[in-house]
Write a structure and sequence with these properties.
Distance between the termini: 80 Å
Radius of gyration: 25 Å
Number of helices: 2
CATH topology of the largest domain: Immunoglobulin-like
Structural class: alpha+beta
Oligomer: single chain
Largest sheet: 6 strands, mixed
């Protein structure tokens, strides 16, 4: 600094280089999503023609991390790859759908929580023995599922 409290030429040059470097590092390290390319996936799950609330939808790629979502009261879902990153890996996926009620019934007189009929009738062909598939593209994908009691 000079007597007036202003930066000298070499100090100003140092400050400007430091500022430029800080901006470049911030842009390279702090901006944008890192990781694989994802396609956004939304849809609706219905069961016997009615929206299926509280269903867990899981997309499992051939290789890599799964994506999952819970359906809302209208049966709508949006897949999440991580808690802060929506989407699913690009490519083919096997899909499973299970029903996980958010409001469990109160225990009975013996202290047992009895499953509701809906838990019992979601066929295995939609979850543990699922034949559901989806192909995720690098764009917005709308993938709806219509489930039936007979598993078809």
């Amino acid at each position: 600094m000079n007597e007036d409290g202003h930066l000298t030429g070499s100090m100003m040059e140092f400050f400007m280089r430091f500022l430029f470097l800080a901006i470049v590092v911030g842009l390279v390290c702090g901006c944008g999503q890192t990781g694989p390319e994802l396609g956004q996936v939304v849809g609706v799950v219905t069961y016997e023609g009615d929206p299926l609330a509280d269903a867990r939808v899981v997309f499992k790629p051939e290789q890599g991390r799964t994506s999952a979502a819970m359906t809302d009261a209208e049966g709508k879902y949006q897949l999440l790859y991580t808690p802060n990153r929506p989407g699913a890996l690009i490519g083919g996926h096997s899909v499973s759908i299970t029903w996980e009620p958010q409001d469990l019934p109160e225990p009975d007189q013996e202290g047992y929580v009895r499953p509701s009929k809906r838990e019992i009738i979601i066929p295995r062909s939609y979850n543990t023995q699922s034949k559901l598939t989806a192909d995720v593209k690098p764009e917005l994908n709308e993938v709806n599922f219509t489930l039936h009691a007979d598993g078809s």
